Amino acid sequence: MLRERLLGLPRRYKRMLQVITDVFLVWAALWLAFVVRLGTDDLVYPFRAHAWLFFTAPLIAIPLFIRFGMYRAVMRYLGNDALIAIWKAVTISALVLSLVVYWNRTVTEAVPRSLVLNYWWLSLLMVGGLRLAMRQYFMGDWYGAVQAVPFFNKQNDGLTKVAVYGAGSAGNQLVAALRLGRAMRPVAFIDDDDQIVNRVIAGLRVFKPKHIQQMIDETGAQEILLAIPSASRARRREILGLLEPYPLHVRSVPGFIDLANGRVRVDDIQEVDIADLLGRDPVAPRKELLEHCIRGQAVMVTGAGGSIGSELCRQILACGPLVLILFEHCEFNLYRIHQELERRIKRESLAVQLVPILGSVRSVERLLDVMHSWKVATVYHAAAYKHVPIVEHNVSEGVLNNVLGTLNTAQASIQAGVQNFVLISTDKAVRPTNVMGGTKRLAEMILQALSQETAPVLFGDKSGVHHVNKTRFTMVRFGNVLGSSGSVIPLFREQIRRGGPVTVTHPAITRYFMTIPEAAQLVIQAGSMGRGGDVFVLDMGQPVKILELAQRMIHLSGLSVRSESAPHGDIAIEFSGLRPGEKLYEELLIGGEVSATDHPMIMRANEEFLTWDAFKNVLASLLKAVETGDYGRVRMLLRETVNGYNPDGEIVDLVHLQRRLEP
């Protein structure tokens, strides 16, 4: 096609073609200026008496066009700045031409005084108009140029019809990008501003939110794209609640910060952030708390490739550490987070040494070697097995990773003189019904016991040597994080994409939720507030019913829920039953004693624990039971040690069950 051939020309050929075209346009404008002034009865022939004028006009105009950058603008993306440049260049060229005409009054054929005025507006019309027409031609979007023309026959072109919520700058950029990409057809704006309601912007009518049904009926919109990147989470939640009853798939442009940082474009459309449905507006972090244990120090994150660990690394990187050690046992996860942070360090020119270390928290020698080598000052211990059913089926691995791994990391920190140690814990450690929660509570109790010792004899140290304890141990407990591996959110999205059914374990099940970035920020801040042995609890807001979450996700995908009362719905919800070790609801506090801190989202819990000497006996018995495969003994020790541990079923460890089948 001609369009592809023109677009494929080298840049210098394109500029030459524009210059030649503009010369002819200047001649045409000048000739038409004579016609407008003198009429057709006395036509002017360019190469007779006024030849000097037709020679002079392009000599004046073309250099000015070049000076004002008219040949640098990309025709497909011609915007307001380019149009202003055209106006300036044409206006100045007309003024200069008028001076030339005035100075050259000696010619035999007089030049009409109104000629220059006619030449000016005709040049604007022809030079600017041709460029606007070519922009539409190269964009392939004549439709967008005639949207506001009354009675225009808008034929169906097969593209998805979308309405854009937000008629501000982001909304207008999104409409322009959609028209250029030709993957969707913008058909309307929705906006709360009464000043622009019922007006036409970029060829699209602006509807009020209360007239969404009218908008659907008139335009046939199938999706709504939220173009409100700077809106608060509370406002977005309010808008999503308004849109939920309508049969529209709701999606969103990226957030304001991502747009400002250049990480994404306005047309990088994504599914609605579930945090807008569930979360509150996050409390701004306190810089002094974020940087207290990090700036200018060597920081180590265990489990650095996991959901929480990787976000901790991202947040820590922004706080100015001297060294950031990524300690991870999964090679792929370590590679992924290391590559991401390396790119960021280069992009932002950060003075941080990034150290990727493959290793397991089960190896105390590896931990101690790393801590000594880089003189680690702060450890964030995020390495843990966290999936309740998986750990329930693999009891020994859960104990060894969550309990022994925490013990090894804590004791290595004491030996290496680490100043700050922060354990990432979970609400499942409170009155647990599963092995994962029980092991995480034991991990908390290890740190609580060590915090009371100024010079403990470490577990497994047969020499009886006392090690001076200079480490300040802190635990931070919170609920589910949105988007983590194994979270229900990506699972529900995938099930909806496949056409259902969406599986929920129980109609009454509830969970606490928080975004990963908010949780990581609060973990870092809480770690700076600890005095030693503190158990901090994050304010998770109100618990969320998982059934209602599934229903809202289905509705915001533009689909309906299939049920007995609505047998013709799109997506069914099925109840699969509680999995081994799963609770209907989670708690954040074992006892009722909680005190406020300086941060409104962080509370300090006061909970009982064992002395270090007593706890070492429990650890010895627990590890011996794991070594011998005595899972009944493991369960009994958890029941005796962990307050509120109450398993609600049989032992379902897969090796244990297989052994029972053997003759």
TrEMBL record:
SUPFAM superfamilies documented for this protein: NAD(P)-binding Rossmann-fold domains, S-adenosyl-L-methionine-dependent methyltransferases
For this UniProt entry, which segments traverse the membrane?
20-39, 51-70, 82-103, 115-133
Q: Which residues form the Polysaccharide biosynthesis protein CapD-like domain?
A: 299-606
What keywords were assigned to this record? Membrane, Transmembrane, Transmembrane helix
Q: Does the keyword Transmembrane helix apply?
A: yes
Which Pfam families does the entry mention? CoA_binding_3, Polysacc_synt_2
Q: What is the similarity comment for this entry?
A: Belongs to the polysaccharide synthase family.
Q: What is this protein called?
A: NDP-sugar epimerase, includes UDP-GlcNAc-inverting 4,6-dehydratase FlaA1 and capsular polysaccharide biosynthesis protein EpsC
